[in-house]
Design a protein that fits this description.
This protein is of the alpha+beta class and about 140 residues long. It contains six helices and five strands, in the order H-E-H-E-E-H-H-H-E-E-H.
Length: about 140
């Protein structure tokens, strides 16, 4: 299974914010959409960063409540690790584990076409294990 197959099941929706927006605005977006990260897109639609809950906590820890009025660009992760639609789920799990992050934007031809979370990967792995278990039980029952 690859990332494109994951996205075909969950959708290609990408929630984004602009880098000049405030951290408070980004937090409202995260809360309203019930998500843990947003991609940060420039005016030209280019990926310029990602802002996660961890980035927000780090900003609040460093700057205190005043961080909420600072620009997203001040707190976002600007060196974004991405994957391609053809990336295997196993490779994606390794990328997430090694980088210690839970959200990876999917980029194709320089454009963000989706975002995959660790929850999406876990859901896929659980479904695969359940299918394998059922196949084994069916095989044993037929023997």
């Amino acid at each position: 299974m690859n990332v494109e197959q994951l996205l075909s099941g969950k959708g290609h929706d990408v929630i984004s914010v602009q880098p000049h927006r405030t951290l408070a605005e980004a937090i409202r977006t995260l809360s309203e959409k019930r998500i843990g990260a947003v991609v940060v897109m420039g005016a030209d639609g280019a990926l310029v960063g990602i802002l996660s809950e961890r980035d927000i906590i780090r900003a609040l820890g460093e700057l205190g409540p005043g961080a909420l009025e600072s620009a997203v660009s001040r707190s976002m992760t600007s060196k974004v690790v991405t994957c391609r639609p053809q990336t295997s789920v196993d490779e994606l799990m390794e990328i997430m584990t090694m980088g210690r992050f839970r959200h990876v934007p999917v980029v194709e031809s320089g454009r963000v076409t989706g975002i995959v979370s660790i929850g999406d990967v876990v859901k896929h792995r659980v479904a695969a294990i359940e299918a394998e278990s059922k196949a084994m039980r069916d095989y044993i029952a037929m023997a």
